[in-house]
Design brief:
The chain has about 325 residues and is α+β, with helices and mostly antiparallel strands. The chain has one domain: ApbE-like domains (T-fold), CATH 3.10.520. About 30% of the residues lie in helices and about 25% in strands. It has eight helices and 17 strands. The strands form five sheets. The protein has an eight-stranded antiparallel β-sheet. Strands 3-5-4 form a three-stranded antiparallel β-sheet, covered by helices on one side. Helix 6 packs antiparallel against helix 7.
């Protein structure tokens, strides 16, 4: 998804940088708020990385996984880890387990066991055998103490939901302490809060080559997310490619029926959960999205499918 561009009443001030393995953008309607807003975002993302990164040996997620190698394990979660895990478990409930935070070992076995640049720089290898996910219901977090319990062999993968949830948290945090309106874009997971431009935040939906396919308006109380099978990919020794989205029901890479799915939800977390679930569902995705009342655009080679509530695409894609 492209960085959003607001056209009225004036172009907001913004900044871009890289963090947590993705592109970050912060837009503000009051230019004087940009420096402090950026500092708040950077600080939170640094804490998020230390809490949930699968690629840092010192992260809470990695330390818990090491403790769970031979037996069930537990840990007291930091506030950032606890918040991200609760968000991931909510996404699992909302999607009936199609988005599952216990797929970490399956993702690693598929080849995505380090930062993507590292994975792509290595000689192509044959992916390991599919690894069954323990299942999201096997993970618990105490509502009072924030004690997290996981089963033996569990490696949590909070990547997508943690990023989307962080966008929601940051947009609300910024609007609560600074004047004006804010848009937080964490690698395509977009949350807005506060005063918006008169016509809403103008958000572009891009394809993998960077071409804008459509522009939609986003207002306060909405989140947008795109899940793609074309961005986080790597080569395999058999001449194929893999992407980072797995079907937790099989432990295998999800079939790339859709190049990308973009959803609108009440929050970025809900939009992300829906777009990820849609990739996993493949051809069943449009019906599932319709049944759940989720406006979405699904792009595949030679066709575009939209669900009820999504603005008509300029290329005449079908509903």
């Amino acid at each position: 998804m492209t960085p959003p561009t607001a056209t009225t009443p004036a172009t907001p001030a913004g900044t871009r940088f890289e963090a947590i393995g993705t592109d970050i953008e912060v837009l503000v309607t009051e230019p004087d708020a940009l420096a402090e807003a950026t500092a708040v975002v950077r600080e939170h993302l640094a804490r998020l990385d230390l809490a949930v990164s699968r690629f840092r040996p010192d992260s809470e997620v990695s330390r818990l996984a090491r403790a769970a190698e031979d037996e069930p394990a537990w840990a007291l979660a930091s506030p950032v880890f606890a918040s991200a895990l609760r968000a991931a478990l909510r996404a699992a409930r909302l999607t009936g387990g199609l988005v599952d935070p216990t797929v970490g070992r399956a993702v690693a076995a598929s080849g995505y066991d380090a930062d993507l640049d590292v994975v792509r720089s290595r000689p192509a290898t044959h992916p390991g055998d599919p690894v069954p996910a323990p299942g999201w219901r096997s993970v618990t977090i105490d509502p009072v103490t924030d004690r997290v319990d996981v089963p033996q062999g569990c490696l949590l993968d909070l990547g997508a939901t943690a990023k989307a949830h962080a966008a929601d948290v940051l947009a609300e945090r910024l609007s609560g302490r600074l004047p004006g309106g804010f848009l937080v874009n964490l690698g395509g997971d977009i949350a807005v809060a506060g005063e918006a431009p008169a016509e809403g935040w103008q958000v572009g939906v891009d394809d993998a080559r960077g071409s804008t396919l459509q522009v939609v308006a986003v207002a306060d109380g909405q989140g947008v997310a795109t899940s793609s099978t074309r961005h986080r990919t790597w080569a395999t020794a058999d001449g194929g490619t893999r992407h980072h989205l797995l079907d937790p029901r099989t432990g295998r890479t999800a079939t790339a029926t859709w190049h990308q799915v973009t959803c609108v939800g009440a929050t970025a977390l809900e939009a992300n959960a829906a777009s990820t679930a849609a990739v996993v569902l493949g051809e069943q995705a449009p019906a599932w999205l319709e049944a759940n009342g989720i406006p979405a655009r699904l792009d595949a080679p030679g066709r575009v499918v939209t669900t009820r509530g999504w603005p008509d695409p300029p290329d005449g894609g079908s509903r």
